[in-house]
Amino acid sequence: MSDQRQSPSERPVLNGLVALVAVALGVGLILGVVALVGTKVLGLGSDDGDSSARSTVRQSMYLPTPVETDEETGPLVTLHTEDTDEPATTDTTETDIPEDEPTSETTSESAASGEISLQALATAVASGERIYFSGVYPGGEGAILWVQRFENGDWADFPASVGVTNGTFSSYIFTGVSGVNRFRVVDRDSGTVSNEISVTVG
């Protein structure tokens, strides 16, 4: 009989403890949900914040894919190099050879190997004007040719000389002697003498 009387009095205590635990669990669950929702809404999550920051940085540093422009720039570069190369070669050939000066091709035809062929640019000049001359000397590479003028029935040394390069030579002289002047060049080392040229001065 004593056990039956004690069991009804102990039940309210057990029921109260169960209810208290249930309320505590419910309140904790609600607080956890509220905290989770709050961090999602406010963006306080560490992982999400770092990933969003990293994605933002990556997007700001991203470079677009280059667009091919070969069709526009390619032909322009090719045409530019062709235009600059052709005038350069033309200018050097024009400036190296004066307009009226004879070339080595015309003079080389009249000179045999070992002979000196001489010719003047003009057959008449004013007093004190330059007398241009040129010629070829096959086999005389590096030789020094001395100019001579015919004076008083003999050839006299004139104060001028010219070197032979690639088998050709060209230079000019001055003279104040009026009338017909006869000139030639001579290689003193080999004794080879050129033909004479006549230039009227004055």
Automatic annotation (TrEMBL):
Residues 45-113 are annotated as: Disordered. Residues 83-103 have a biased composition (Acidic residues). Keywords: Membrane, Transmembrane, Transmembrane helix. The chain crosses the membrane at residues 12-37. Residues 104-113 have a biased composition (Low complexity). It comes from the Bacteria. This is Immunoglobulin-like domain of spore germination. The lineage of its organism: Bacteria, Bacillati, Actinomycetota, Actinomycetes, Propionibacteriales.
